[in-house]
Amino acid sequence: MNYPLISEYIEAIRSAEDNLDELSFLRPVLSDDGEPVMSAGGFSVVFKMKDERDGKLYAVKCFTKDQKGRSESYKLIADELEFVSSNFLTPIRYLDKELFVDTDQTPETEFPVLLMDWVDGIPMDKFIQKNINNQYALDMLAFRFSRMATWLLTQPYAHGDLKPDNILVKDDGSIVLVDYDGMYVPAMKGQRARELGSPNYRHHLRTDNDFNRHIDDFPLVIIALSLKAIALKPVLFRNNIGECGLLLNESDFRDIKSSKILYELMCLMPNNDLCSLLGLFFVVLSQNKLEVLLSDTFVLSKPIKRIDEPEINISTIKNALSNDIVRIYNKACSMINEKRYKNAYIIFRQMSLYSYGQNGLGVCYAYGFFVEKDMEKAAYWFLKAARGGFSVAQFNIANCYYNGNGVIEDRNLAYHWYNKAYEQGLSVAREMLTYEGVGGKSEWGRYEDKLNVKRWNKIASIYILRP
Questions:
Q1: What is the C-alpha separation between 359 and 436, in angstroms, rounded?
Q2: Contact present, 400 and 363 (Cβ < 8 Å)
Q3: Distance between CA atoms of 262 and 248, rounded to whole angstroms?
């Protein structure tokens, strides 16, 4: 069966009161230029409509291409969703021969429509772009998605085409799933899938025979993992804009050992939530489904909202030369001394691509400046900065290894990083290597009893050194 062109649907919708049957109370919402508000996809076009009786907004979906079994499927989906009480989904009605369209594409003049509540929201990827510098918004998006995923995994049905375009984020941050063309409901058991979804959000071994309540398991894990990683390191999303997936894509699933983005995710350790999601990723990659017992793993820790962080212009940080980075770092260190911890933390966070900013974050976590004190996170940031060649961070991570703060105590690694800092001319590191005759790693145990413990502890405490 052929269907009208989008332009023909537009003309029919303009006179909705005459061309709609049961829904004749709906009127098109017009844009500033007087055109019906609409969005088009591969198989359909959706119009924003308003009930003239009470002002309620609806979405009316009109089809532009034939799809085998669509009418029967939507009737089954509508029956299932009628009894679903969840803010994650919206009820639908499938009305056959509802809209009259004067078309040249087929002798038919009456066509089906799908009626849904209108959802005021933006696609997930657009929300991320809009809030890429809002740490709390990114954390909450990952958390809310994990709650939705936990709920969906326990249901007897599946969405069937989970991807950012079909996940809308409302102004209050809540999530709503839209576009139910590929949905599975229990009444469809034994049928073949009508569509397989986007290659970047489905298991690479999935076929149309895989049509059951587990078809969402893989994309749920992929999206949850991507959102958590983006919240931890937003630059990953910036670098991936223009690619087909949020972070991961089909090539990563087919050849994980060559995946650069998976390597990046491994480098974000330690983070308990990310570890759990990475574990789920490998499980679902190998099995193409999750057992219900694993659904609880989707519940991420709820972000703690700090006092409102002001929006700051970070263009100088992004484009800074090395001397500018030092200047900005020094300014943030001064803020620490002035107990302006929030401002310092914000600057360090925006500098997190640089070893100076990484060391600053380590200091914030070590002392609990604006964030909860966490020596594991402190050691994580010190180590990243140390590997970047920053002598102060090398000294700080050496202290962590010597004392076992945030890492497993390791005197060899402590000596290694003290020596690295000393090689760059950090005098306090030299004092640690030579104090009371302790001239090298092999002599530490022999001379440890000679150390002036009080003096050493003062030196070995983690503190801010100006670069």
A1: 29
A2: no
A3: 8
